[in-house]
DNA sequence: AAAGTATATCGCAAATATACGATTTAGTAC
DNA sequence: GTACTAAATCGTATATTTGCGATATACTTT
């Protein structure tokens, strides 16, 4: 049991769920905010700001990177991370159209809310 | 180790992460869409639509309910679920302001994207 | 080359999520 | 009452996430 059934859903649903998952931890929300604030950032400064160990921050960064929301380049002995604007915008669009779909269809009266 | 450090982040960040988590599975996305479409729904019909066992669907419904995104009332031997409009709208607002915060601060040129 | 610095990866432990079948609960119909 | 139906919960297996320390990698400085 517990085989992943995610493939059984539509590409759109999977993509949205993946983006949501990337945002599903406060540390990653905080990282994105911090990256946006500085618009140029290294992991070390994030470690100072976040209440997590260096290795844990690095892991969260990797997850954001795998989701495509941030881009990282090696910059000497440091790394430079920033928000991947185009991917982020796409994610926002996905969320927006999902929210819109829910809201417009929801116009008729509900049964129990 | 692996103690939950989520409390170490701001309420806002935690709340957004919680909502994101609720949306972090395609089954739950699909459930929300289906509920919005019908605007009145019982678990059984969802089981027919989704490629999951009844108990699994019930579990996903509970997660959505715990996140506050849907409301459920007992309706005879069946249950009636629908989207919790006000909570959903709040969630949308949280996402929107987060996205806006990222985008506006991101205005300056990036370093590596 | 050697030492230092910054980040990534490894290895592990614990927590949480995912999924199902089996069972329980709760109401309806007979 | 008993039988039926629908949904929730329980128990369990497996997968994934979270977190840390330790180690490895990679570049810089001396």
Automatic annotation (TrEMBL), chains A, B:
Domain HTH arsR-type span(s) in chain numbering: 8-103
Swiss-Prot/TrEMBL keywords: DNA-binding, Transcription, Transcription regulation
SMART domains in UniProt: HTH_ARSR
SUPFAM superfamilies per record: Winged helix' DNA-binding domain
Domain of life: Bacteria
InterPro entries named among the record's database cross-references: ArsR-like_HTH, HTH_ArsR_DNA-bd_dom, HTH_MetalResp_TranReg, WH-like_DNA-bd_sf, WH_DNA-bd_sf
PANTHER family cross-referenced by the UniProt entry: REGULATORY PROTEIN ARSR, TRANSCRIPTIONAL REGULATOR, ARSR FAMILY
Protein name (record): Metalloregulator ArsR/SmtB family transcription factor
Species per Swiss-Prot/TrEMBL record: Flavihumibacter fluminis
